[in-house]
């Protein structure tokens, strides 16, 4: 835990905090207002801009992974140091957990007004979905749910690899975060229906843990036929798959300069 790693962890913490506080905050505003203050598109935009701003916050220090699936894929495919994988993941989880708490405290009165103080996971007064993702009733964890998570995260990593490939048409460094945010936006607008496009294990697990401790209880893990593991395993597989496809079809025929 040398000082440079501490700085990188602090950047991952703060960047992930920014991502989650805007993303979950947007869901809270839409749901608790009865869709009077936003709709699905505003949620898509908030998550995309949250990613963009989080990358601007942390990018110059840690690379702004903000996502264990990104960190894991970079370790597998881009020689990112394995010794940093767990510290980065812990920092990302911590940032997401603290952001969840901030959203909860900010909207506590609105939560009480919405559900009368009885926290419910699903149903008309269900509010756990503000923080974590839950599948549509027709979507089972296997194979549908896992495939859904793999596809979304594979698309994310494929595009990230393309946007950061200096041998290709990589954008200027100051435009990279905006374009990565646009990738999240288009994934949400095309693959969000089944289960809310949880393409980030820290984004889903840390807020889910928060709701467990904040009054929603163990149902947050049992709901959706024990859905909770799918947004962890699926993105980790999908991230590596998406990066591998990019390398197979692009990097293989356009290798790095020696």
How many strands, which pairing sense, and closed or not: the largest β-sheet?
none
Quickly count the helices.
Answer: 10
Order of helices and strands: HHHHHHHHHH
Helix content: 55-70%
The helix/strand class is mainly alpha
Q: On the 0-100 scale, what is the average pLDDT?
A: 95
Distance between the termini: 32 Å
General description of the model:
With 258 residues, the chain is mostly helical. The protein has helices at 3-32, 40-62, 68-77, 85-106, 108-115, 141-163, 176-191, 201-216, 219-226, 230-249. Helix 6 packs across helix 10 (230-249). The chain is globular and about 60 Å long.
What are the defining features of this structure?
globular, 10 helices, mainly alpha, 258 residues
Give a short summary of the structure.
This protein has 258 residues and is mainly α. The chain contains ten helices and no strands.
């Amino acid at each position: 835990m040398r000082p440079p790693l501490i700085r990188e962890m602090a950047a991952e913490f703060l960047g992930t905090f920014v991502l989650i506080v805007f993303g979950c905050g947007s869901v809270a505003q839409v749901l608790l207002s009865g869709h009077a203050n936003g709709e699905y598109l505003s949620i898509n935009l908030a998550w995309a801009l949250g990613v963009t701003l989080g990358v601007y916050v942390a990018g110059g220090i840690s690379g702004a992974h903000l996502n264990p699936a990104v960190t894991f894929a970079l370790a597998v495919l881009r020689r990112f140091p394995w010794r940093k994988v767990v510290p980065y993941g812990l920092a990302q989880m911590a940032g997401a957990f603290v952001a969840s708490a901030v959203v909860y405290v900010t909207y506590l009165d609105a939560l009480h007004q919405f559900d009368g103080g009885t926290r419910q996971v699903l149903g008309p007064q269900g509010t756990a979905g503000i923080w974590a993702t839950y599948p549509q009733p027709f979507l089972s964890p296997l194979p549908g749910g896992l495939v859904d998570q793999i596809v979304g995260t594979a698309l994310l990593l494929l595009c990230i690899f393309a946007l950061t490939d200096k041998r290709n048409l990589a954008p200027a460094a100051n435009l990279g975060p905006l374009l990565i945010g646009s990738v999240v936006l288009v994934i949400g607008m095309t693959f969000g229906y089944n289960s809310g496009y949880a393409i980030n294990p820290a984004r889903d697990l840390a807020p889910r843990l928060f709701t467990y401790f904040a009054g929603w209880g163990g149902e947050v893990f049992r709901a959706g036929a024990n859905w909770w593991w799918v947004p962890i395993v699926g993105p980790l597989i999908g991230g590596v798959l998406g990066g591998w496809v990019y390398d197979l079809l692009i990097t293989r025929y356009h290798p790095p300069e020696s």
